[in-house]
Amino acid sequence: MREVILGVVVLLCLYLAYVVMRLFRVSRPPRPATPIEPEYETILDTVEDISPAPPATQIAAESLTQADPAQSRTERETFDALVELARLRFQVEALEASNAELREEVASLRETLGADIAALRNARSVSPQYGEAVVLAQRGLETDAIAERCGISISEAELVAALARGARTQE
User: Fold this and answer.
1) What is the pLDDT of residue 27?
2) For the ranges 16-25, 78-87, 98-107, which has the lowest average pLDDT?
3) Which residues, at least 6 apart from 135, have a Cβ–Cβ distance to it below 8 Å?
4) Is-above-0.85 flag for pTM?
């Protein structure tokens, strides 16, 4: 028995040491963030120069008028931002549509729940002897069927049906 308790204590100590080591690892300052490249390819990444080689005079003229790399980088970043904006707009529209559907569903559930709560309140306010008769009257059964099923007189069934109709119209 002592060996089992000693084993459990040793295991708990090892676990505690492991947890303390993890805590010290977490408390280290985070590494500096590296710039993150987009996870998708843009049109600028996939376009390849397929045109035939231009004459040497054109190359010289183009090299003089060619934009610097910083400008092409900002153009690419602008294009990437526009692509991202379009994607986000699409997601927002989808979320708005699903939000509208959920609002409609919640509204219908509220109506159903309100009707159920009203029925329960009416059933609770009725004597237990006539509880089943009230439920049957709310379902729209005829007074003869209510009287026969619940074992009450027809006049009592008519009274219960009138009370059930009155409770429904008050709602």
Assistant:
1) 59
2) 16-25
3) 119, 123
4) no
Reference 141, options 123, 122, 154; nearest CA is 154
CA distance 83 to 38: 11
Q: Are 131 and 164 a contacting pair, CB within 8 Å?
A: no
How high is the mean pLDDT of the chain?
Answer: 78
Query: With contact defined as beta carbons under 8 Å apart, do 168 and 154 qualify?
Result: no
User: Is residue 137 exposed (0-12), middle (13-18) or buried (19+ Cβ within 10 Å)?
Assistant: buried
Please, are residues 154 and 167 in contact by the beta-carbon 8 Å criterion? no
Give the pLDDT band (50/70/90) at residue 23.
confident
Q: Rounded to whole angstroms, how far apart are CA atoms 161 and 131?
A: 12
Q: Which CA distances in Å does 160 have to 61, 122, 127, 131, 156?
A: 99, 11, 11, 9, 6
Q: Residue 50's pLDDT is what?
A: 47
Tell me the two tokens of residue 68.
């610097």
